[in-house]
Specification:
about 120 residues, binds zinc ion
Length: about 120
C-alpha cells in the first residue's frame, strides 16, 4: 500500500481501502498469514469488513468488532483465542508504526520480526 492513494477497492463493501491501518490484507501479511509471493495477487479488504479477523484486535484505536456464530471469539477455545488476539493485535499496532514512519520501509520489512525470521 505504498501507493495507497490509488485506492484499492474492498472486495466486501466496494469502497477504497485507504491506509495501512484499515487494510485486512496488510494486517494478515504482517502477521505472516499472507506470504510475500501472493501479496499482490490478493484482493484488498477493510479490516472491519472481515469480522473473523477484526474481532481479535484489542487496541484503543480500534472499536471492537464482534462476530456471531461458530467462529465468535467468545465461543472459541480460550487459550487459542487469547493467542490469536495477541498476534492480531500486535499486527495491528505494527501497521500503525509503519504508517508513522518517515522513511517508508520496504514491503519486505513490514512483517513482525518473527515472521521475517521465518521467511529467511
Ligand atoms: Zn470494506
Amino acid at each position: 500500500m505504498a501507493k495507497c492513494d490509488e485506492g484499492y477497492l474492498c472486495e466486501v463493501c466496494g469502497q477504497p481501502v485507504q491506509g495501512l491501518t484499515t487494510s485486512a490484507l496488510y494486517l494478515q501479511y504482517v502477521i505472516g498469514w499472507v506470504d510475500p509471493e501472493t501479496l499482490h495477487t490478493r484482493r484488498e479488504c477493510h479490516i472491519r469488513c472481515q469480522p473473523s479477523l477484526a474481532q481479535f484486535i484489542d487496541d484503543e484505536r480500534f472499536s471492537a468488532v464482534l462476530m456471531d456464530g461458530d467462529f465468535d471469539r467468545r465461543q472459541l477455545d480460550q487459550r487459542f483465542a487469547t493467542d490469536r488476539a495477541e498476534l492480531v493485535s500486535r499486527g495491528y499496532r505494527r501497521l500503525h508504526e509503519l504508517q508513522k514512519k518517515r522513511t517508508s520501509p520496504t514491503v519486505q520489512e513490514y512483517p513482525l520480526p518473527e515472521v521475517i525470521a521465518r521467511w529467511r
